[in-house]
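Here is an idea for our session: we take a single protein and study its fold together. To get us started, please write out a protein record for me. Once you have written the record down, we can walk along the chain together.
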Amino acid sequence: MNFMKRAFWSVKARKGKSILLLFVLTVISVLVLSGLTIQTAADQSSILAREKLGGEVSLTVDREKLISGQQNEESGGRARFQPVPIPFDSAEELTDSSYVKGYNYYSSTSALAKNFTAVGSEETAEGTEQEGFGGGGRMMAGDVSVEGILFSDSTSSFLNGDASIVEGRHLTEEDINKEVTLIEKNLAAENDLKVGDSITIANTENTESTLEIVGIYESTADMDERAQNFAFLNPYNQLFVPYTVANELKGTSETIDRAVYYMKDPADIQTFISNAESSSSIDFDQFKLDANDQLYQQMMGPIENVASFSNNVVFLVAIAGAIILALIVMMTIRERKYEMGVLLAIGEKKGKLVSQFLVEILIVAVLAMGISTLSGNLVANKMGEQLLQQEITQSEETANTPASFNSRRMPFQSSNVQDVETVNELSIHTTGEDLLKLFGIGLMVVLLSTLIPSLTVLRLNPKAILTKQD
């Protein structure tokens, strides 16, 4: 009788041992499969979260590093923040990346209305000059905000639905160095303006720009409470212009405040950032690439904690399972020494005895993994849901921080903090890849837990075994 048949009959004859082994292997398989399934669900949720955030990476001034550096230069004193504009050439370097499908440039300021009236304000005779907060140029609390861009259709206002074109066209890269603008519908109505008309704006030094209206948009953005005191904070008073126009008003050239790069695949964000940091000429002591990590962590923090826990479960269960199985195999070998002695005495090779033990464990392991595929998904759902709710509760308790604790921002700087919902559910489904991983881990556990204890078989002396038994 060959060792394959002996293994089958041995499993059948030793029902008690086989059932115990089946129970142990099933528990191990279910826990491992649950952990793998939760990890897969977390990875999928991560990609969905990135897609929801837009798959964007922004090149901006690193305020923390600049403030820290300026404080050091002031010999520990309280330094005034001096913003640094981003060189246009630096921003342009990253547009050729294979991971980028689109990009936009921003240069922001405010301006005085010369031949029209801003919505909700009296005609402003003179602006209040402030320390620049957007790109190192002059900044004043004027009548209108001026959003210098490259493409108006890919600005956040139009992408998230807060603005939409109602007449005319969008601004494109073909409008660079042209004096054209998009104005809001209410501003146009109050001043009886239409597409083709011109308006004039100016900075505090009376540098004027006469802009042709090429489009009118409608804004549904929430009103800033500070707009009662500062007309340029009213969303109706926002002008979209080529960034070159904004730079002219600010007294700068060949610079921008920030650049936004849109990824082809959100999964490539970290690779894009790593490549940029290692191969571009951008000074990352002054600037940084921001992938909305704060919002991403707000959305994905609890799920990532659950995924980390499930990864630990897989690791620990695999190790513990291998140890338990090794002990069971070791006990089995001791109990079956006489059987092995007889087989060795009639000429059976030691290698085939080891193979028999391995086949016996594999027969039970295959049954256990088959059972786990039926119950693993249910266990993973229950376990994942329970762990996720615990993490969400803990996250909410930590996040209940008073608004006054938020980092300070400059007088007219809008808050970039968005209210995003935490991902509070996992779509847990066992995939073919999860099953392959389970069988791979299971095979490794079975091999290690069987072969290592079975090395004692190689030292067996059939004559000594049979003599002791007699």
